[in-house]
Specification:
The protein is of the alpha/beta class. It contains 15 helices and 7 strands. A 5-stranded parallel β-sheet has the order 2-3-4-1-5. Strands 6-7 form a two-stranded parallel ribbon. The chain starts with 14 loop residues before the first strand and ends with a helix.
Length: 314
């Protein structure tokens, strides 16, 4: 099996496959290849086949021309006819002709195309926060800029569901005059767009990032989120950790989550013990009572709970 590579590592090859569901990453992959070709050959032909591929299209576009200009052929809707034409094309590839094919899903034709000798560019969705953080870091490395860790987390939380917007935000920040991007800069530009939820507040605390958790908490309370569901979210996470610590071999379905969520949970388990989790459960029960009317300062009590979570003490 051919290893998939990041679009950042892509090189010009006779055949490149953009593999995965994320259209933004596929667009970045194609643009990287187009840029590489334009740097080598400022004048080249570009052909995009967006509709269902028709038999013979590739062979016609790749046939030798009078001026033998380089060609970039982008096929967005592959089918069985393309598989047959690629078999002929790869047996005798035209010089300076580069074919790019967009593959989504697990259709049989995609599996057939993946068998060809090709450069396979990873365009799968970035589901884990760690993958999004790596994406942010790579974006800023390309601009020879740095970005603070808490600023990275804020970007990840702000654009959690839209990689294209995350990429655009990174580009906007990296093109500023600052050599290092701090939290305040990100917050000033994008803080108003943040869709803070109880899960993000709690996730930051369990990740040990108290500073971000407190900022998110203030935003959550300012936008009307009640303290009660925040405490309930801490309780849910504590129950999940308790299940995992009592059975480290538990599967995602046994704990009641997706595989990627289990991987994340295992990363958050470090530093917790059965004893510290028991103490946390007691603090959760006390805080729950306070935020439901037992305290004059429920926000302070919630802050103390998050402090205990982030420091893994209670």
């Amino acid at each position: 099996m051919v290893a998939k590579i990041s679009f950042r590592s892509a090189q010009l090859e006779a055949l490149s496959l953009l593999m995965g569901a994320n259209d933004y990453l596929a667009d970045r992959g194609f643009e990287k290849l187009r840029k590489l070709l334009s740097e080598l050959h400022p004048q080249f032909e570009q052909h995009t086949i967006a509709d269902a591929y028709q038999a013979g299209q590739l062979l016609n576009l790749a046939s030798p021309s009078l001026f033998a200009e380089p060609r970039l052929i982008y096929i967005q809707s592959p089918n069985k006819a393309l598989v047959e034409d690629l078999q002929k094309f790869t047996q005798d590839p035209a010089e300076l002709t580069f074919v790019v094919v967009r593959l989504k899903g697990a259709a049989a034709v995609n599996r057939d195309l993946a068998k060809f000798k090709s450069q396979q560019i990873d365009c799968e969705d970035l589901k884990r926060d760690s993958d999004k953080l790596s994406f942010i870091q790579a974006e800023f490395r390309e601009f020879k800029k740095t970005i603070a860790a808490d600023a990275q987390r804020l970007l990840t939380q702000t654009f959690a569901n839209d990689l294209a917007e995350l990429g655009a935000a990174c580009s906007q920040l990296a093109n500023s005059d600052q050599s290092e991007i701090d939290f305040e800069t990100v917050d000033a530009l994008f803080g108003g767009r943040e869709q803070t939820t109880a899960f993000r507040v709690v996730d930051a605390a369990f990740a040990g990032d108290l500073q971000t958790s407190m900022r998110l908490l203030r935003n959550a309370l300012d936008t009307g989120i009640d303290p009660v569901p925040l405490v309930a979210t801490v309780a849910m996470k504590a129950r999940q950790l308790a299940k995992l610590i009592s059975n480290p071999a538990a599967t995602a379905s046994e704990i009641g989550m997706a595989d990627w969520q289990l991987r994340k949970l295992k990363g958050e388990l470090a530093g917790w013990s059965e004893s510290s989790l028991e103490n946390l459960v007691g603090l959760i029960a006390s805080t729950d009572e306070k935020v439901k009317g037992g305290s004059r300062h429920p926000e302070y009590d919630l802050e103390q709970l998050l402090l205990a979570v982030s420091s893994k003490t209670s």
